[in-house]
Protein backbone atom coordinates (compact mmCIF):
# COMPACT_ATOMS: atom_id res chain seq x y z
CA UNK A 1 0.00 0.00 0.00
CA UNK A 2 1.32 3.39 -0.90
CA UNK A 3 2.35 5.47 2.08
CA UNK A 4 0.60 8.62 0.86
CA UNK A 5 -2.04 7.85 -1.79
CA UNK A 6 -3.03 10.51 -4.30
CA UNK A 7 -6.49 11.57 -3.21
CA UNK A 8 -6.97 13.61 -6.40
CA UNK A 9 -6.57 10.65 -8.77
CA UNK A 10 -9.51 9.43 -10.82
CA UNK A 11 -9.20 5.99 -9.30
CA UNK A 12 -9.24 7.34 -5.74
CA UNK A 13 -12.32 9.42 -6.46
CA UNK A 14 -14.17 6.44 -7.96
CA UNK A 15 -13.46 4.41 -4.83
CA UNK A 16 -14.43 7.31 -2.58
CA UNK A 17 -17.77 7.83 -4.35
CA UNK A 18 -18.47 4.08 -4.17
CA UNK A 19 -17.69 3.92 -0.44
CA UNK A 20 -19.69 7.11 0.12
CA UNK A 21 -22.65 5.58 -1.72
CA UNK A 22 -22.32 2.35 0.27
CA UNK A 23 -22.25 4.22 3.59
CA UNK A 24 -25.15 6.41 2.49
CA UNK A 25 -27.31 3.45 1.52
CA UNK A 26 -26.34 1.51 4.65
CA UNK A 27 -27.29 4.47 6.84
CA UNK A 28 -30.46 4.97 4.79
CA UNK A 29 -31.56 1.37 5.08
CA UNK A 30 -30.62 1.02 8.75
CA UNK A 31 -32.40 4.20 9.83
CA UNK A 32 -35.44 3.39 7.70
CA UNK A 33 -36.22 0.49 10.04
CA UNK A 34 -34.67 1.34 13.43
CA UNK A 35 -37.05 4.14 14.55
CA UNK A 36 -39.96 1.75 14.06
CA UNK A 37 -38.39 -1.41 15.45
CA UNK A 38 -40.18 -0.98 18.79
CA UNK A 39 -43.51 -0.40 17.02
CA UNK A 40 -42.88 -3.44 14.81
CA UNK A 41 -42.11 -5.57 17.88
CA UNK A 42 -45.27 -4.24 19.52
CA UNK A 43 -47.27 -5.60 16.58
CA UNK A 44 -45.88 -9.12 17.14
CA UNK A 45 -47.57 -9.71 20.50
CA UNK A 46 -49.56 -8.32 23.40
CA UNK A 47 -46.79 -6.77 25.52
CA UNK A 48 -47.06 -4.44 28.49
CA UNK A 49 -44.98 -1.24 28.68
CA UNK A 50 -42.03 -2.81 30.47
CA UNK A 51 -41.97 -5.89 28.20
CA UNK A 52 -42.09 -3.74 25.07
CA UNK A 53 -39.28 -1.51 26.31
CA UNK A 54 -37.23 -4.56 27.32
CA UNK A 55 -37.70 -6.46 24.05
CA UNK A 56 -36.94 -3.31 22.06
CA UNK A 57 -33.79 -2.74 24.10
CA UNK A 58 -32.64 -6.34 23.59
CA UNK A 59 -33.34 -6.21 19.85
CA UNK A 60 -31.33 -3.00 19.56
CA UNK A 61 -28.52 -4.10 21.85
CA UNK A 62 -27.89 -7.64 20.68
CA UNK A 63 -26.63 -6.49 17.27
CA UNK A 64 -24.05 -4.26 18.94
CA UNK A 65 -23.12 -6.92 21.51
CA UNK A 66 -22.30 -9.31 18.68
CA UNK A 67 -20.28 -6.59 16.94
CA UNK A 68 -18.31 -5.88 20.10
CA UNK A 69 -17.34 -9.52 20.47
CA UNK A 70 -16.51 -10.33 16.85
CA UNK A 71 -15.03 -7.03 15.58
CA UNK A 72 -11.41 -7.71 16.67
CA UNK A 73 -11.43 -10.92 14.62
CA UNK A 74 -12.77 -9.13 11.54
CA UNK A 75 -10.22 -6.35 12.08
CA UNK A 76 -7.33 -8.79 12.11
CA UNK A 77 -8.72 -10.44 8.99
CA UNK A 78 -9.08 -7.02 7.32
CA UNK A 79 -5.37 -6.29 7.91
CA UNK A 80 -4.53 -9.61 6.24
CA UNK A 81 -7.15 -9.76 3.47
CA UNK A 82 -8.27 -6.17 2.88
CA UNK A 83 -11.19 -3.97 3.90
CA UNK A 84 -13.14 -4.36 0.66
CA UNK A 85 -13.74 -8.02 1.46
CA UNK A 86 -15.11 -7.00 4.85
CA UNK A 87 -17.52 -4.55 3.19
CA UNK A 88 -18.77 -7.31 0.90
CA UNK A 89 -19.25 -9.64 3.85
CA UNK A 90 -21.22 -7.05 5.79
CA UNK A 91 -23.51 -5.91 2.96
CA UNK A 92 -24.16 -9.47 1.78
CA UNK A 93 -25.26 -10.80 5.16
CA UNK A 94 -27.31 -7.68 5.94
CA UNK A 95 -29.21 -8.21 2.69
CA UNK A 96 -30.38 -11.61 3.91
CA UNK A 97 -31.00 -10.92 7.61
CA UNK A 98 -32.94 -7.68 7.12
CA UNK A 99 -35.11 -9.22 4.41
CA UNK A 100 -35.95 -12.12 6.72
CA UNK A 101 -36.69 -9.77 9.62
CA UNK A 102 -39.52 -8.27 7.58
CA UNK A 103 -41.05 -11.72 7.14
CA UNK A 104 -40.98 -13.21 10.66
CA UNK A 105 -43.84 -13.13 13.15
CA UNK A 106 -42.08 -13.84 16.46
CA UNK A 107 -40.10 -11.37 18.58
CA UNK A 108 -37.39 -13.94 19.36
CA UNK A 109 -36.79 -14.56 15.65
CA UNK A 110 -36.32 -10.81 15.23
CA UNK A 111 -33.75 -10.87 18.04
CA UNK A 112 -32.00 -13.92 16.53
CA UNK A 113 -31.74 -12.30 13.09
CA UNK A 114 -30.35 -9.12 14.62
CA UNK A 115 -27.76 -11.24 16.44
CA UNK A 116 -26.64 -12.78 13.13
CA UNK A 117 -26.63 -9.33 11.53
CA UNK A 118 -24.34 -8.07 14.29
CA UNK A 119 -21.92 -10.98 13.87
CA UNK A 120 -21.38 -10.14 10.19
CA UNK A 121 -22.06 -6.39 10.02
CA UNK A 122 -19.62 -3.47 9.88
CA UNK A 123 -19.89 -1.97 6.40
CA UNK A 124 -19.55 1.67 7.44
CA UNK A 125 -16.65 0.98 9.78
CA UNK A 126 -14.69 -0.99 7.17
CA UNK A 127 -15.49 1.52 4.42
CA UNK A 128 -14.11 4.24 6.71
CA UNK A 129 -10.98 2.18 7.41
CA UNK A 130 -10.57 1.56 3.68
CA UNK A 131 -10.73 5.28 2.90
CA UNK A 132 -8.41 6.09 5.82
CA UNK A 133 -5.84 3.81 4.21
CA UNK A 134 -6.37 5.37 0.77
CA UNK A 135 -6.16 9.02 1.90
CA UNK A 136 -3.33 11.40 2.73
CA UNK A 137 -3.23 12.17 6.44
CA UNK A 138 -3.28 15.89 5.73
CA UNK A 139 -6.77 15.43 4.25
CA UNK A 140 -8.05 12.88 6.77
CA UNK A 141 -10.33 15.32 8.62
CA UNK A 142 -12.28 16.20 5.48
CA UNK A 143 -12.50 12.59 4.31
CA UNK A 144 -13.57 11.24 7.71
CA UNK A 145 -16.31 13.84 8.04
CA UNK A 146 -17.42 13.22 4.45
CA UNK A 147 -17.70 9.51 5.22
CA UNK A 148 -19.74 10.37 8.28
CA UNK A 149 -21.87 12.70 6.17
CA UNK A 150 -22.65 9.76 3.90
CA UNK A 151 -24.11 7.66 6.69
CA UNK A 152 -25.91 10.54 8.38
CA UNK A 153 -27.34 11.71 5.05
CA UNK A 154 -28.83 8.26 4.70
CA UNK A 155 -29.93 8.41 8.31
CA UNK A 156 -31.66 11.71 7.54
CA UNK A 157 -33.69 10.40 4.61
CA UNK A 158 -34.23 6.88 5.95
CA UNK A 159 -36.65 7.66 8.79
CA UNK A 160 -38.70 9.99 6.59
CA UNK A 161 -39.00 7.41 3.81
CA UNK A 162 -39.51 4.61 6.32
CA UNK A 163 -42.20 6.63 8.07
CA UNK A 164 -44.17 6.96 4.87
CA UNK A 165 -43.80 3.24 4.07
CA UNK A 166 -44.73 2.19 7.61
CA UNK A 167 -47.71 4.53 7.67
CA UNK A 168 -49.22 3.36 4.38
CA UNK A 169 -47.94 -0.22 3.99
CA UNK A 170 -47.14 -1.46 7.51
CA UNK A 171 -43.98 -1.98 9.53
CA UNK A 172 -42.72 -4.98 7.53
CA UNK A 173 -42.22 -3.18 4.22
CA UNK A 174 -39.30 -0.95 5.40
CA UNK A 175 -37.32 -4.11 6.31
CA UNK A 176 -37.93 -5.67 2.91
CA UNK A 177 -36.96 -2.48 1.07
CA UNK A 178 -33.83 -2.21 3.23
CA UNK A 179 -32.82 -5.75 2.28
CA UNK A 180 -33.05 -4.83 -1.40
CA UNK A 181 -31.01 -1.68 -0.79
CA UNK A 182 -28.21 -3.66 0.88
CA UNK A 183 -28.16 -5.96 -2.12
CA UNK A 184 -27.45 -2.92 -4.30
CA UNK A 185 -24.64 -1.88 -1.95
CA UNK A 186 -23.07 -5.33 -2.27
CA UNK A 187 -23.13 -5.12 -6.07
CA UNK A 188 -21.71 -1.57 -6.18
CA UNK A 189 -18.89 -2.46 -3.78
CA UNK A 190 -18.00 -5.61 -5.70
CA UNK A 191 -17.64 -3.87 -9.06
CA UNK A 192 -16.60 -0.28 -8.29
CA UNK A 193 -14.48 -0.15 -5.13
CA UNK A 194 -10.72 -0.39 -5.64
CA UNK A 195 -8.36 -0.94 -2.72
CA UNK A 196 -4.57 -0.64 -2.96
CA UNK A 197 -3.86 -3.27 -0.37
CA UNK A 198 -0.72 -5.25 0.35
CA UNK A 199 -1.61 -8.35 2.40
CA UNK A 200 0.29 -8.75 5.65
CA UNK A 201 1.45 -12.34 6.28
CA UNK A 202 -0.12 -13.85 9.37
CA UNK A 203 3.31 -14.46 10.88
CA UNK A 204 4.06 -10.71 10.72
CA UNK A 205 0.86 -9.69 12.49
CA UNK A 206 1.63 -8.45 15.99
CA UNK A 207 -0.67 -9.53 18.79
CA UNK A 208 -1.36 -8.68 22.41
CA UNK A 209 1.21 -6.51 24.16
CA UNK A 210 3.47 -6.37 21.10
CA UNK A 211 0.66 -4.87 19.06
CA UNK A 212 -0.17 -2.18 21.62
CA UNK A 213 3.49 -1.30 22.19
CA UNK A 214 3.90 -0.77 18.43
CA UNK A 215 1.27 2.00 18.52
CA UNK A 216 3.29 4.45 20.59
CA UNK A 217 0.92 6.63 22.62
CA UNK A 218 -1.35 3.90 23.97
CA UNK A 219 -2.85 6.21 26.60
CA UNK A 220 -4.23 8.41 23.84
CA UNK A 221 -5.58 5.40 21.92
CA UNK A 222 -7.41 4.07 24.98
CA UNK A 223 -8.80 7.53 25.75
CA UNK A 224 -10.17 7.81 22.22
CA UNK A 225 -11.72 4.34 22.40
CA UNK A 226 -13.36 5.21 25.71
CA UNK A 227 -14.67 8.42 24.17
CA UNK A 228 -16.25 6.44 21.34
CA UNK A 229 -17.91 4.13 23.89
CA UNK A 230 -19.34 6.96 26.00
CA UNK A 231 -20.49 9.08 23.05
CA UNK A 232 -22.19 6.12 21.39
CA UNK A 233 -23.87 5.19 24.68
CA UNK A 234 -25.23 8.71 24.97
CA UNK A 235 -26.41 8.92 21.35
CA UNK A 236 -28.02 5.45 21.36
CA UNK A 237 -29.73 5.64 24.74
CA UNK A 238 -32.92 7.09 23.26
CA UNK A 239 -32.87 4.89 20.13
CA UNK A 240 -35.20 2.06 21.22
CA UNK A 241 -37.86 4.34 22.65
CA UNK A 242 -37.83 7.43 20.38
CA UNK A 243 -41.11 6.47 18.69
CA UNK A 244 -42.66 5.54 22.05
CA UNK A 245 -41.62 8.89 23.55
CA UNK A 246 -43.03 10.74 20.54
CA UNK A 247 -46.28 8.78 20.94
CA UNK A 248 -46.42 9.89 24.59
CA UNK A 249 -45.78 13.53 23.66
CA UNK A 250 -48.58 13.29 21.08
CA UNK A 251 -50.88 11.59 23.61
CA UNK A 252 -51.34 8.68 21.22
CA UNK A 253 -53.04 10.82 18.54
CA UNK A 254 -51.95 11.89 15.07
CA UNK A 255 -49.49 10.46 12.55
CA UNK A 256 -47.05 9.04 15.10
CA UNK A 257 -44.99 7.02 12.59
CA UNK A 258 -44.29 10.01 10.36
CA UNK A 259 -43.53 12.40 13.23
CA UNK A 260 -41.25 9.77 14.80
CA UNK A 261 -39.39 9.58 11.52
CA UNK A 262 -38.91 13.35 11.42
CA UNK A 263 -37.70 13.46 15.03
CA UNK A 264 -35.33 10.53 14.45
CA UNK A 265 -33.92 12.21 11.33
CA UNK A 266 -33.06 15.55 12.93
CA UNK A 267 -29.55 14.64 14.22
CA UNK A 268 -28.60 13.48 10.74
CA UNK A 269 -29.83 16.69 9.18
CA UNK A 270 -27.92 18.76 11.73
CA UNK A 271 -24.72 16.83 11.08
CA UNK A 272 -25.03 17.37 7.33
CA UNK A 273 -25.37 21.13 7.78
CA UNK A 274 -21.98 21.49 9.45
CA UNK A 275 -19.99 18.33 8.61
CA UNK A 276 -17.95 19.74 5.74
CA UNK A 277 -17.01 22.90 7.63
CA UNK A 278 -16.12 20.84 10.70
CA UNK A 279 -13.89 18.59 8.56
CA UNK A 280 -11.91 21.51 7.16
CA UNK A 281 -11.63 23.05 10.62
CA UNK A 282 -10.37 19.75 11.98
CA UNK A 283 -7.57 19.64 9.41
CA UNK A 284 -6.75 23.22 10.35
CA UNK A 285 -6.72 23.26 14.18
CA UNK A 286 -6.59 19.57 15.06
CA UNK A 287 -9.06 16.88 16.08
CA UNK A 288 -8.55 17.44 19.82
CA UNK A 289 -10.09 20.91 19.97
CA UNK A 290 -12.96 19.89 17.72
CA UNK A 291 -13.68 16.90 19.96
CA UNK A 292 -13.75 19.05 23.10
CA UNK A 293 -16.10 21.56 21.48
CA UNK A 294 -18.47 18.88 20.21
CA UNK A 295 -18.76 17.22 23.62
CA UNK A 296 -19.46 20.52 25.39
CA UNK A 297 -22.20 21.45 22.92
CA UNK A 298 -23.76 17.98 23.00
CA UNK A 299 -23.97 18.13 26.80
CA UNK A 300 -25.67 21.51 26.65
CA UNK A 301 -28.16 20.28 24.02
CA UNK A 302 -29.14 17.13 25.93
CA UNK A 303 -30.22 19.02 29.06
CA UNK A 304 -33.21 20.91 27.51
CA UNK A 305 -34.57 17.65 26.08
CA UNK A 306 -35.54 16.73 29.65
CA UNK A 307 -38.10 19.55 29.63
CA UNK A 308 -39.69 19.15 26.18
CA UNK A 309 -43.49 19.02 26.01
CA UNK A 310 -44.10 18.39 22.30
CA UNK A 311 -42.28 16.47 19.54
CA UNK A 312 -41.27 19.61 17.64
CA UNK A 313 -39.30 20.95 20.60
CA UNK A 314 -37.60 17.56 20.78
CA UNK A 315 -36.88 17.72 17.05
CA UNK A 316 -35.23 21.15 17.41
CA UNK A 317 -32.86 20.06 20.17
CA UNK A 318 -32.02 16.87 18.27
CA UNK A 319 -31.20 19.00 15.23
CA UNK A 320 -28.70 20.95 17.33
CA UNK A 321 -27.38 17.71 18.83
CA UNK A 322 -26.68 16.48 15.31
CA UNK A 323 -24.55 19.55 14.65
CA UNK A 324 -22.52 18.73 17.76
CA UNK A 325 -22.25 15.06 16.81
CA UNK A 326 -20.43 16.05 13.60
CA UNK A 327 -17.55 17.09 15.87
CA UNK A 328 -17.42 13.97 18.06
CA UNK A 329 -17.03 10.53 16.45
CA UNK A 330 -15.45 11.91 13.23
CA UNK A 331 -12.89 13.68 15.44
CA UNK A 332 -12.10 10.38 17.15
CA UNK A 333 -11.71 8.64 13.78
CA UNK A 334 -9.46 11.41 12.51
CA UNK A 335 -7.35 11.26 15.67
CA UNK A 336 -6.93 7.50 15.24
CA UNK A 337 -6.06 7.93 11.55
CA UNK A 338 -3.19 10.34 12.25
CA UNK A 339 -1.97 8.45 15.34
CA UNK A 340 -1.37 4.89 14.09
CA UNK A 341 0.38 3.22 11.10
CA UNK A 342 -1.73 2.39 8.05
CA UNK A 343 -1.02 -1.34 8.29
CA UNK A 344 -2.97 -1.58 11.57
CA UNK A 345 -5.99 0.47 10.46
CA UNK A 346 -8.11 -2.67 10.22
CA UNK A 347 -7.54 -3.64 13.84
CA UNK A 348 -7.62 -0.11 15.24
CA UNK A 349 -10.88 0.68 13.49
CA UNK A 350 -12.27 -2.68 14.59
CA UNK A 351 -11.41 -1.85 18.19
CA UNK A 352 -13.13 1.48 17.66
CA UNK A 353 -16.12 -0.39 16.25
CA UNK A 354 -16.08 -2.67 19.31
CA UNK A 355 -16.12 0.39 21.56
CA UNK A 356 -18.94 1.84 19.47
CA UNK A 357 -20.78 -1.48 19.60
CA UNK A 358 -20.45 -1.72 23.39
CA UNK A 359 -21.95 1.76 23.54
CA UNK A 360 -24.68 0.45 21.26
CA UNK A 361 -25.36 -2.28 23.81
CA UNK A 362 -25.17 -0.14 26.94
CA UNK A 363 -27.09 2.81 25.47
CA UNK A 364 -30.30 1.03 24.41
CA UNK A 365 -30.37 -1.14 27.52
CA UNK A 366 -29.77 1.89 29.72
CA UNK A 367 -32.51 3.77 27.91
CA UNK A 368 -34.94 0.85 28.15
CA UNK A 369 -34.35 0.36 31.88
CA UNK A 370 -34.50 4.06 32.77
CA UNK A 371 -37.64 4.64 30.71
CA UNK A 372 -39.28 1.55 32.17
CA UNK A 373 -38.49 2.42 35.78
CA UNK A 374 -38.58 6.23 35.69
CA UNK A 375 -39.56 8.17 32.55
CA UNK A 376 -38.46 8.82 29.00
CA UNK A 377 -37.20 12.29 29.98
CA UNK A 378 -34.87 10.83 32.61
CA UNK A 379 -32.78 9.31 29.81
CA UNK A 380 -31.60 12.77 28.71
CA UNK A 381 -30.38 13.69 32.19
CA UNK A 382 -28.34 10.49 32.41
CA UNK A 383 -26.79 10.93 28.95
CA UNK A 384 -25.79 14.52 29.77
CA UNK A 385 -24.05 13.21 32.90
CA UNK A 386 -22.18 10.61 30.81
CA UNK A 387 -20.85 13.29 28.46
CA UNK A 388 -19.67 15.37 31.44
CA UNK A 389 -17.69 12.32 32.63
CA UNK A 390 -16.21 12.03 29.14
CA UNK A 391 -15.14 15.69 29.23
CA UNK A 392 -13.38 15.11 32.55
CA UNK A 393 -11.48 12.12 31.10
CA UNK A 394 -10.43 14.14 28.05
CA UNK A 395 -9.31 17.04 30.24
CA UNK A 396 -6.65 14.81 31.80
CA UNK A 397 -5.50 13.77 28.30
CA UNK A 398 -5.44 17.27 26.84
CA UNK A 399 -1.65 17.30 26.31
CA UNK A 400 -1.90 14.09 24.26
CA UNK A 401 -4.76 15.51 22.22
CA UNK A 402 -2.83 18.72 21.58
CA UNK A 403 -0.09 16.68 19.86
CA UNK A 404 -2.50 15.62 17.09
CA UNK A 405 -1.97 18.76 14.98
CA UNK A 406 -0.77 17.59 11.56
Automatic annotation (TrEMBL):
Residues 15-402 form the Major facilitator superfamily (MFS) profile domain. It comes from Periweissella fabaria. It is a multi-pass membrane protein. Its main location: membrane. Keywords: Cell membrane, Membrane, Transmembrane, Transmembrane helix, Transport. PROSITE patterns: MFS. The gene is sbnD_1. It is found in: Cell membrane. The chain crosses the membrane at residues 20-42, 54-74, 86-111, 169-191, 220-246, 258-278, 290-309, 315-336, 376-396. This is Staphyloferrin B transporter.
Amino acid sequence: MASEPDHNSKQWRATFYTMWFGCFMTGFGFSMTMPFLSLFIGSLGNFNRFELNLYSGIAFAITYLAQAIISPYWGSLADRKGRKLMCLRASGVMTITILLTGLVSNVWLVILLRLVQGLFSGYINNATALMAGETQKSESGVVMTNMMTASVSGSLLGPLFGGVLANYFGYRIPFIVTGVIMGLVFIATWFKADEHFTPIPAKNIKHGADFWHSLGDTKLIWTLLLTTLIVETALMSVGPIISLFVAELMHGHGNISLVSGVVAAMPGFGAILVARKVGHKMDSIGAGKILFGGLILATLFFIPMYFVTNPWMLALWRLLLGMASAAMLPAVQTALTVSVPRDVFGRIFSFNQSAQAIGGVVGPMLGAIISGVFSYQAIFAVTAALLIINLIVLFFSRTHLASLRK
